[in-house]
């Protein structure tokens, strides 16, 4: 293609989509970050180049289990992906990739980026060290102070303290812990503290929408929320003291039930309990007797030697739901969101996204994908609604805002459709709680990627044809 026509093509594309590709300055006190699942081949393309790779390590220790956001650390910026974790409190980077099993896991670990303090003119290395322990894995870290930018925004936080790993065990990436910080769990200000302290947010609150399995991406908004990511009204759940005594995002669950396809809802007994919301956990952990009862309804009599319930993959194509009830709101989780598919040497195997635990009850990604949650440290509460994606309508969270009265724009998901785990019902079907007109408009706006691709691809073909024709003439 000639240079002149190639330049013309670039100008056409830039004129049509320049706003979408540029970094938009923030006009309000909130910061929006994309959240992507580790299986997102668009973002982590190099990880999955070999389609023959299969699971070679235990399910709980694989790299396909988490959601990530991108940070730019240091001067000049060094891009690093970190796991979004509401169940921990500190930021650290640089896992030891050589200690991992499985080629896909090693490639993923290397693909998330590496931060080198010596390459940053703004880095200050401290002598303090610490070992961070998680449900699975641990990281021995040394603290560093440096600037941290949030990728895709103009937000730059200065003098942030975080850990650089000296060694790790069973960790595929660094972690961005966004639980309670200074003077609650740690002696220094974590990211949530610094966002508010440096004026990037007005309050210590953030909203999280992980997105469905099929979407493979969601959004976290520090200091803001998106009313086109949920249906109904946000319902306030006070943060309570949990049974482990650790200040986490504990709330009270009132009940848990199951609604099989074309059947009545069954309520499980003794399901009023404290649970904490943990985006850093793939699975949902429930008391053993309850987990066994739920598994039995999915045809699993007991856990396998690795502690997982093997189930039939047919449930991914059925329209049943599990219902997690809280004060004023019930989060319905479709079967396809609660069942985990794994590619192995023996083909596709499926497992229930719930595991037994006698330590505590934890709602991990298999439940949180179906919820929209605002984590509000300022008011010591979590505000919940049913996840439903109808576009994007962002709002700043202010200190004066009553989050318990914010209503979403979306219709409720069509739970009768096994494939519609996040998309709202089409107009005229069922009865929604959001603004149908607003939701439709936002939904149309959110499809710019698909429509845009078709548009510029058509332009590209036209210009290429013209260039080819001119080439023949000349």
Automatic annotation (TrEMBL):
<protein>
    <recommendedName>
        <fullName>Peptidase A1 domain-containing protein</fullName>
    </recommendedName>
</protein>
<feature type="domain" description="Peptidase A1">
    <location>
        <begin position="67"/>
        <end position="385"/>
    </location>
</feature>
<feature type="signal peptide">
    <location>
        <begin position="1"/>
        <end position="20"/>
    </location>
</feature>
<keyword id="KW-1015">Disulfide bond</keyword>
<feature type="region of interest" description="Disordered">
    <location>
        <begin position="415"/>
        <end position="443"/>
    </location>
</feature>
<dbReference type="InterPro" id="IPR001461">
    <property type="entry name" value="Aspartic_peptidase_A1"/>
</dbReference>
<dbReference type="Pfam" id="PF00026">
    <property type="entry name" value="Asp"/>
</dbReference>
<dbReference type="InterPro" id="IPR033121">
    <property type="entry name" value="PEPTIDASE_A1"/>
</dbReference>
<comment type="similarity">
    <text>Belongs to the peptidase A1 family.</text>
</comment>
<dbReference type="InterPro" id="IPR021109">
    <property type="entry name" value="Peptidase_aspartic_dom_sf"/>
</dbReference>
<feature type="compositionally biased region" description="Polar residues">
    <location>
        <begin position="434"/>
        <end position="443"/>
    </location>
</feature>
<dbReference type="InterPro" id="IPR033876">
    <property type="entry name" value="SAP-like"/>
</dbReference>
<keyword id="KW-0732">Signal</keyword>
<keyword id="KW-0645">Protease</keyword>
<feature type="disulfide bond">
    <location>
        <begin position="97"/>
        <end position="109"/>
    </location>
</feature>
<dbReference type="GO" id="GO:0006508">
    <property type="term" value="P:proteolysis"/>
</dbReference>
<feature type="active site">
    <location>
        <position position="278"/>
    </location>
</feature>
<keyword id="KW-0378">Hydrolase</keyword>
<dbReference type="GO" id="GO:0004190">
    <property type="term" value="F:aspartic-type endopeptidase activity"/>
</dbReference>
<keyword id="KW-0064">Aspartyl protease</keyword>
<feature type="active site">
    <location>
        <position position="85"/>
    </location>
</feature>
């Amino acid at each position: 293609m000639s240079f002149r026509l190639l330049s013309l093509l670039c100008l056409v594309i830039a004129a049509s989509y320049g706003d979408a590709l540029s970094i938009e300055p923030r006009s309000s006190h909130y910061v929006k970050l994309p959240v992507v699942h580790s299986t997102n081949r668009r973002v982590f393309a190099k990880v999955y180049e070999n389609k023959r790779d299969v699971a070679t390590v235990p399910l709980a220790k694989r790299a396909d289990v988490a959601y990530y956001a991108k940070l730019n650390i240091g001067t000049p910026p060094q891009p690093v992906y970190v796991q979004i974790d509401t169940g921990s409190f500190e930021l650290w980077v640089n896992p030891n990739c050589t200690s991992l099993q499985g080629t896909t896991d090693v490639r993923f670990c290397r693909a998330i980026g590496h931060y080198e303090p010596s390459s940053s003119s703004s880095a200050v290395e401290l002598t303090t060290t610490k070992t961070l322990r998680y449900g699975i894995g641990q990281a021995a870290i040394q603290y560093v102070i440096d600037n941290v930018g949030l990728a895709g925004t103009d937000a730059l936080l200065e003098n942030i303290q975080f850990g650089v790993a000296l060694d790790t065990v069973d960790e595929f990436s660094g972690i961005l812990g966004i639980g309670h910080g200074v003077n609650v769990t740690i002696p220094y200000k974590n990211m949530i503290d610094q966002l508010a302290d440096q004026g990037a947010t007005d309050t210590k609150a953030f909203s999280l929408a992980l997105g469905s399995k099929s979407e493979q991406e969601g959004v976290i908004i520090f200091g803001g929320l998106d009313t086109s990511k949920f249906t109904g009204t946000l319902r306030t759940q006070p943060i309570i003291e949990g049974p482990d005594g650790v200040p986490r995002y504990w709330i009270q669950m009132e009940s848990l039930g199951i609604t099989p396809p074309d059947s009545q809802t069954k309520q499980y007994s003794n399901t009023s309990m404290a649970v904490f919301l943990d985006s850093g956990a793939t699975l949902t952990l429930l008391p053993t007797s309850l987990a066994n009862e739920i598994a039995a309804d999915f045809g699993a009599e007991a856990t396998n030697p690795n502690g997982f319930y093997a189930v039939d993959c047919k449930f991914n194509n059925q329209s049943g739901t599990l219902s997690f009830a809280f004060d004023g709101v019930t989060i319905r989780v479709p079967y396809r969101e609660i069942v985990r598919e794994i590619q192995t040497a023996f083909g596709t195997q499926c497992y229930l996204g719930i595991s037994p635990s006698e330590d505590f009850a934890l709602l991990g990604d298999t439940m949180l994908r179906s919820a929209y949650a605002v984590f509000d440290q300022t008011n010591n509460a979590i505000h919940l609604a049913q996840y439903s994606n109808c576009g994007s309508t962002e709002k700043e969270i202010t200190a004066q805002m009553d989050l318990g009265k914010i209503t979403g724009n979306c219709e409720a998901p069509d739970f009768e459709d096994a494939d519609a785990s996040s998309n709202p019902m089409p107009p005229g079907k069922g009865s929604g709680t959001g603004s149908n007109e607003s939701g439709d408009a936002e939904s149309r706006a959110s499809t710019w990627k698909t429509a845009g691709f078709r548009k510029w691809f058509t332009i590209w073909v036209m210009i290429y044809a013209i260039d080819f024709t001119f080439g023949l003439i000349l």
